[in-house]
């Protein structure tokens, strides 16, 4: 097995970033260039890549994701954007990258990743263990009219206003992503442009999806804490069912069940996660990198 150098911290290298984007497009139909050009690709997201003949041949990205877990900050990292050019697969490149990452992040409290079904035997070799996630749901009866207004996320002005709200927000979750607005803005500026809502009276933002009376709230952001029930009610009487994309601090009234996503398995590493299943947590939907 040939040993290659692992290249990192190269987001400002136009040539390597373009090659990284090309491989991401080919592998996931996803590009990060607009995220970079819009100024949201910061120090938290760091591709670790093996470069062959000037092009990214294999990659595992590190995303630093600090969490507030029951009031205490935990320094976690998430591994993602795991990809290898087809002609270089099965040559141990991803393994070499994983070894390099582990050398660099010995002081992290824990590491997590979401793997597809084709690589479930790979991560246990590095000490990762499969884990269950839990989602919170409930049925509701709302009598009031909708006061949540959809806010189009089509320009930098709207993005900056939301990002400031994210940075100043109180925690709504017992397992809350913190100090990483850039990851949430990745979703807002790409896939969730039509899923941002604001209630003027409550002074609260919500990133949410509505389909056939079912409301999925990805997250809530406000400077002062608002009852989650009030936020739900602000979506109006057409809502009959609610699912949360995060673990609520107040779980009263919710049913909880194991969350299962097709072709996706959560892997955890580190003693910090010993209570993850016991506390019935989920990785927030907007914290997937």
What portion of residues is helical? 10-25%
Gap between N and C termini, in Å? 29 Å
Mean pLDDT figure? 96
- Estimated share of beta-strand residues: 25-35%
Largest sheet: 8 strands, mixed
Supply the helix-strand structural class: alpha+beta
**What is the string of helix and strand elements?**
EHHEEEHEEEEHEHEEEHEEE
Shape: globular
**Count of individual helical segments:** 6
DSSP strand tally:
15
The low-pLDDT segments are none
Radius of gyration: 20 Å
Summarize this structure briefly.
This protein has six helices and 15 strands.
Describe the structure.
There is one protein chain. With 289 residues, this protein is α+β, with helices and mostly antiparallel strands. It has six helices and 15 strands. The strands form two sheets. Strands 1, 2, 3, 4, 5, 6, 9 and 15 form an eight-stranded mixed sheet that branches. Strands 8-10-11-12-13-7-14 form a seven-stranded mixed sheet. A hairpin with a 2-residue loop joins strand 2 (45-52) and strand 3. The chain is globular and about 65 Å long.
Ordered list of secondary-structure elements with their pairings:
Blueprint: E1 6-7, H1 14-28, H2 33-37, E2 45-52, E3 55-69, E4 72-84, H3 93-104, E5 110-115, E6 129-131, E7 133-139, E8 149-150, H4 156-168, E9 175-178, H5 181-188, E10 196-199, E11 204-211, E12 214-221, H6 228-233, E13 241-244, E14 255-259, E15 265-269
Parallel strand pairs: 4-5, 12-13
Antiparallel strand pairs: 1-2, 2-3, 3-4, 3-9, 5-15, 6-15, 7-13, 7-14, 8-10, 10-11, 11-12
Helix pairs in contact: 4-5
What are the defining features of this structure?
single chain; about 290 residues; alpha+beta; 8-stranded mixed β-sheet; 7-stranded mixed β-sheet; 6 helices; 15 strands; about 20% helix
């Amino acid at each position: 097995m040939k040993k290659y150098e692992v290249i990192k911290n190269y987001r400002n290298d136009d040539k390597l970033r373009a090659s990284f984007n090309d491989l991401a497009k080919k592998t996931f139909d996803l590009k990060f260039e607009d995220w970079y050009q819009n100024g949201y690709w910061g120090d938290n997201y760091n591709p670790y890549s093996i470069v062959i003949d000037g092009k990214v041949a294999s990659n595992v990205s590190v995303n630093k994701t600090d969490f507030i877990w029951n009031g205490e900050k935990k320094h976690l990292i998430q591994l993602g954007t795991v990809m290898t050019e087809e002609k270089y697969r099965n040559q141990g490149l991803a393994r070499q990258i994983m070894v390099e990452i582990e050398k660099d992040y010995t002081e992290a409290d824990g590491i997590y990743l979401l793997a597809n079904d084709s690589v479930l035997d790979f991560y246990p070799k590095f000490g990762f263990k499969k884990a269950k996630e839990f989602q919170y749901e409930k049925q509701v009866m709302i009598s009031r009219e909708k006061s949540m207004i959809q806010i189009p996320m089509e320009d930098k002005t709207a993005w900056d206003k939301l990002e400031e709200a994210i940075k100043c927000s109180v925690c709504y979750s017992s397992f809350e992503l913190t100090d990483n607005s850039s990851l949430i803005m990745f979703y807002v500026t790409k896939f969730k442009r039509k899923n941002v809502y604001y209630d003027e009276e409550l002074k609260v933002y919500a990133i949410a999806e509505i389909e056939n009376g079912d409301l999925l709230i990805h997250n809530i952001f406000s400077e002062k804490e608002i009852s989650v029930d009030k936020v739900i009610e602000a979506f109006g009487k057409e809502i009959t069912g609610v699912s949360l994309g995060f673990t609520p601090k107040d779980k009263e009234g919710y049913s909880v069940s194991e969350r299962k996503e097709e072709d996706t398995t959560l892997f955890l590493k580190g003693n910090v996660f010993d209570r993850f299943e016991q506390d019935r947590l989920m990785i927030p939907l907007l914290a997937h990198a």
